[in-house]
Amino acid sequence: MAKTIIKVFVILLSITSFSRMAGADEIINWDECVSEAKKNHPDLASAAEKIKGAKATKEITRSATLPQVTGTASESTSNNSAIGSGTSTDYEYGGSIQQLLFDGFKTSYSLSSNERTIEAFNYNYYVVSSNVRLQLRTAYANLLASQELIKVTQEIADRRKQTLDLVKLRYEGGREHKGSLLTSEADFAKAVYGVNQAKRNIYLSQRKLIRALGRKTFFPYLAVGGLDVKDTNLIRPDFEKLCEITPSLQQLIFQKEAARFSLKSAKAGFFPQVYVTGTESNADTDSFPRQNQWSLGTSLTWPLFDGGNTIATVQKARATLNQAEADEKSGRDSVVLTLSNTWTELQNAVENVAVQKKVLDAAEIRARIATAEYSIGLLTYDNWIIIEDNLVSAKTNFVNTQLAALLAEANWVQAKGGTLDYD
Hints:
Elements: H1 2-20, E1 26-28, H2 30-40, H3 42-62, E2 68-80, E3 86-102, H4 106-172, H5 178-213, E4 221-223, H6 239-243, H7 247-267, E5 273-284, E6 292-301, H8 309-375, H9 381-416
Parallel strand pairs: 1-4
Antiparallel strand pairs: 2-3, 3-5, 5-6
Helix pairs in contact: 1-5, 2-4, 3-4, 4-5, 4-7, 4-9, 7-8, 8-9
């Protein structure tokens, strides 16, 4: 008996020590998480830089359509003692300008390709934002569930303690056998373990949230909010129509269009290039020469044979286009299937929450009645503990079911392309 009392005391002390560790140092809500992720997440920063790079590439291409101006200046000293002229210094400065007139629309097609690439990277940013939202929402939901499980597991531990006390009284009164007492002690120990496990899971959930926020250093947050699903979308949508506006498919469409213009640009390599050029220079032995020369004209270059480079470039561009077209078709089919799957899982998860709530309500009422019946001897321990176990399972199952519904909602929003700006 003394060993039993000591064991119970140690377990209660464990619960108290973990209770003192409960809670986080700062509260954070969903809107604050979204705002911080927008500023700090490295994936978003990377996607934004890709857009800047694509815009810079377009400006590089555009530069070929603008006048190309160069300036030159030189000074040279020579000595020709053989003819007795001695040392002389010549000065020259000048400039030239060249303007592209026609290149078979190669630059124009390249610019069109660049513009589609920029749009593709814009949609890539939305895709990344959608993925970041899924990571963030998953981490936030897990933290909410972990916090709720601490309350639930503490309730279970308190209930198991009450069960143990009641069984102990009946055992001491000779109305219960030792097996029932030992089982109750084991159930209480498992309940305490559940509390401790839930508290440890809080730390892990906070770590995942910090990662999803894009923070470098750990900080113990306490999430605010319930486990209710908002975006239930009970009416089945037109998945094919919804697919067309998703960022992932739009990205593939613009990648295909960029490849199409790249192919046209590659074919333009077979056409001649026409330039107008002008030069002016001054040369003399004076520091500021005054002997002026200038020229103005046009030039035409036509690649007759380049070792097959242009042909190979066209073949590569055509293969890239074919690949982009295949990726678009595959992507459309994949998005439609993902939308169908995530919507179905959301409906199943939401309905299951309602079912598990009824199961929990029934288990609580049944357990209340069974406890009263056991306390007056109308119910055996074996039958009573089954009902108690059902209540414990119903409590934890309900929280896990709510979490599953929240995660299903997050996946549904991500499948639709919902970004961090999604309400």
